[in-house]
# Entry
Amino acid sequence: MAQLFTLHPDNPQDRLLKQAVAMIHAGAVIALPTDASYVLACHLGDKSALDRIRSIRRLDTNHLMTLLCKDLSSLSSYAKIENSTFRLLKSLSPGPFTFLLSASREVPNRILHPKRKTIGLRIPDSAICQHVLSLLAEPLLVTTLILPGEDLPLTDALDIREKLEHQIDLVIDGGPGSLTPTTVIDATQAAPVLVRQGLGDAKLS
# Structure
């Protein structure tokens, strides 16, 4: 059965955060609250955990995965970023924005879109996420927690645990999640393109 850690959203308990990070290092799949929706998350280098996430959500290899990064320095290690793009990322981060970028060689091929070699990256404005990323000292691989056949993400930690108690290892309860996803911006070209309007105002025009 999945464990449940209840954390204060602004001042999360360090002891529980360290336990969560140890579980991630050991191959766990976790449900994590962000500044938008809850996500399924695992270690970037763990193929088995990624396969479990794809199985839970019934995703194929064409589905674009996202890396949650602590800051721009971390993010820039995993993507090719021009100066104009860097300014855009700096103006909108941290926040509920996912940027589609050309991946660097640091990103394993198995998580890239097979044709475009792109990856989603974002810097969450969430104390829980930021503390986890600090302790982990590398990005987390995530995807929005939407179950197969559903249009909206799960928003309640207890509901997530009940529905996925035998499929994931840990649920972090940081309060209710949002039904509205992140805003997605394609930043692979010189002129950024709004792909999906969600939380936040990108102000691209």
About this structure: DSSP finds six helices and ten strands in the chain.
